[in-house]
Amino acid sequence: MQPDPIFVIAAALAVAVILASAATHKLRAPARFASQLEDYQLLPQALVRPVARVLPCIEAVLAFALLVPAARQVAAFAAAALLAGYALAIAINLWRGRRDIDCGCAGPQQAQPIRPVLLTRNAVLVGLALVASLAPLSRALGVFDGFVVIAASAVALLIYAAADGLMANSPRLLKLIGR
Amino acid sequence: MEALIVSNILLWCLLIALAFAVMGLVRQIGVLHGRLAPAGALMVDKGVAVNEPAPQVTAADRSGRPVNFGYAGEKAQLLFFLSPTCPICKSLLPAIKSIAKTQAHRLDVIYVSDGDMDAQKALIAEHKLEDATYVVGPEVGMTYQIGKLPYAALIDNTGVLRAKGLVNSREHLDSLFETEHLGSATLQQFLHNSQHAHGAHNH
């Protein structure tokens, strides 16, 4: 069954904005991102700097490609793979028992240690990217469809930001109530 | 059909507004967590006793004007001891500035720091303290025997030291004014005094 284009385009728009914001955070503070990447201890030392430089560029390109209808499907698969890769990196470090490293998930104000709940967050994002990769039903789109797409992705992004904030707050809350 | 479209648009707008409100709430909780950060161990300190006349000292502020500490004057003085190298000091500056603003009619806030002048200038520019009285030099800190930062001392308008202490959070700052209000140097002393008074009342 083919989904309505509204779902696909709204999902693509939301993933594009999330990737673009992630890319700008990383490009604005390359040194911080490089040290976060180093903390994950997944790459040989020589590769850390080049990868830290290339990853934000890939994110930015994918964000842009998601908005181009012709490239949407490929870009959405690539974005899903990238987000799944991040989840894998977190999972490996959780499995190693290194729960004290900074996730580097959101901006500089939201430093948070890696926790299993972050895997859920990435799973949701991968799901969103996979929705964006589906081939939509072809139908003519009007102004109202455009409005619904923008409104839906705006709500999705705001709720994502709120959920991200709640996740960043929860370790601090646990510390406050002494657990 | 028309009514359905209108209702749909209205619902989307309200949903966006609601999502904004939720995000705002989450951000505010984050700020509160930041303000409630662990305070650190308090210590018993020596130096000038509370409720005694404050030591009198004069030092030049950043622009060379003399500033009197511990003299009787029109307004009470809040001395905030800080350093550009102390991150907690910086996180307290917004609270200090808001106190300076709301209590301007009865309180002069004086920032006392020591060390590298360039770092001081950067701190002043970053936190917009250009108009504040900002003293750089070791004299005041040595007179008041300040060992730890951020530290604050409250001197009333008769030149008596009313409260002092290590301030790690806004709560600690507020407790300085509470101390002034209660007239006791420490909470323990206040409890002791009030128990005493209570006991006397019963007899």
UniProtKB/TrEMBL annotation, chain B:
Residues 48-187 form the Thioredoxin domain. Keywords: Membrane, Transmembrane, Transmembrane helix. One of its GO terms (cellular component) is membrane. Pfam families: AhpC-TSA. One of its GO terms (biological process) is methylamine metabolic process. GO terms for molecular function: antioxidant activity; oxidoreductase activity. It is found in: Membrane. Pathway: One-carbon metabolism; methylamine degradation. InterPro entries: AhpC/TSA, MeN_DH_accessory, Thioredoxin-like_sf, Thioredoxin_domain. It is a single-pass membrane protein. Its main location: membrane. The chain crosses the membrane at residues 6-26. May be specifically involved in the processing, transport, and/or maturation of the MADH beta-subunit. This is Methylamine utilization protein MauD.
